[in-house]
Amino acid sequence: MNVDHFDFDLPQERIALRPAAPRDSARLLVLDGGSTHDRIVSDLPSELRAGDLLVFNDTRVIPAQLEGTRGAARIGATLHKREGPRRWRAFIRNAKRLRDGDPIDFGNGVTATASDRAQDGSFALDFAGEEPVELLLERAGRMPLPPYIAAKRPTDERDADDYQTMFARETGAVAAPTAALHFTPGLMTALKAAGIGHATLTLHVGAGTFLPVKASDTDDHQMHAEWGRIDQATADRLNAVRAGGGRVIAVGTTSLRLIESAAGTDGLVRPFEGDTSIFITPGYRFRGIDGLLTNFHLPRSTLFMLVSALMGLERMQAAYAHAIENGYRFYSYGDASLLLP
């Protein structure tokens, strides 16, 4: 499809620079069948049904942005995918000053050697020493806020908490699964009381999630791979919920993409561990999910294409126009939508 179909005008003041406080006070636009109504996230127990299951991504964001030097040249690195115990693939700022074999000094005793430049301009970085790379990043890295926030304000201490979900457990993401940022212990208690369950899976979100679609046709866009895992017990639970008449509601596009990667044409979810580069556009037949809770996405993005595949392009264009007109806050720290086709 022509990528222009997924474009829309978004006023800059609609981009949220901080999350709602408390988190579950964010607004919630509900698209349920043919109806559209305005709620807040804490209303979620009344918008779902007893027997439904919310599926969260338990990945934990690492301090994946690094600033360093190669000789006199300043080099910026954003890690986006682990390739080995001490090796990460990274997007590089000022990459023209970097060659295979060059060392980069990131300060605080953290150094890495660049190699294996890829067609997309990224390098592999091999971190020196014997300390776990996670400890090195805690010393030298900072939280990788999305570019549309980082361009407007610097990262600060609040972001270390704000940009981490209450489910964060498995270290390895370089971007938060932001739909889950809206959840609080109190909301989880209310959902449980309403008979709504939850499960977790792991997809380590990569920085490629923020890359613009440069192709003019969706068929020509290449997704970056991300590593994910669904264990046997979780797959069995998802299948049991649907077999019992409940709905599987993915919390975030990352959860949805991993479930769909693990689901067969028979609609059954199977254990999964490995890379996925699934790209969902209109015409896709969903296999493993029945709904999605997600934030509001960028124009021309793969994520707006995904929600348009779930609900229909015209429906999502109208919903986003409603959200813009009614002051909803967009992107990672913004408000949410509940999409029930």
From TrEMBL:
EC number of the protein: 2.4.99.17
Family matches, as Pfam families: Queuosine_synth
Cell compartment(s), UniProt: Cytoplasm
Class of the enzyme per the UniProt entry, highest EC level: transferase
Involved pathway(s): tRNA modification; tRNA-queuosine biosynthesis
GO BP terms in the entry: tRNA queuosine(34) biosynthetic process
Catalyzed reaction equations: 7-aminomethyl-7-carbaguanosine(34) in tRNA + S-adenosyl-L-methionine = epoxyqueuosine(34) in tRNA + adenine + L-methionine + 2 H(+)
GO terms for MF: S-adenosylmethionine:tRNA ribosyltransferase-isomerase activity
UniProt keyword list: Cytoplasm, Glycosyltransferase, Isomerase, Queuosine biosynthesis, S-adenosyl-L-methionine, Transferase
Domain of life: Bacteria
Primary subcellular site in the record, as a coarse category: cytoplasm
UniProt GO cellular component terms: cytoplasm
Gene3D superfamilies in alphabetical order: QueA-like
Subunit and partners: Monomer.
Function in brief: Transfers and isomerizes the ribose moiety from AdoMet to the 7-aminomethyl group of 7-deazaguanine (preQ1-tRNA) to give epoxyqueuosine (oQ-tRNA).
Family of the protein in this entry: Belongs to the QueA family.
The name this protein goes by in its record: S-adenosylmethionine:tRNA ribosyltransferase-isomerase
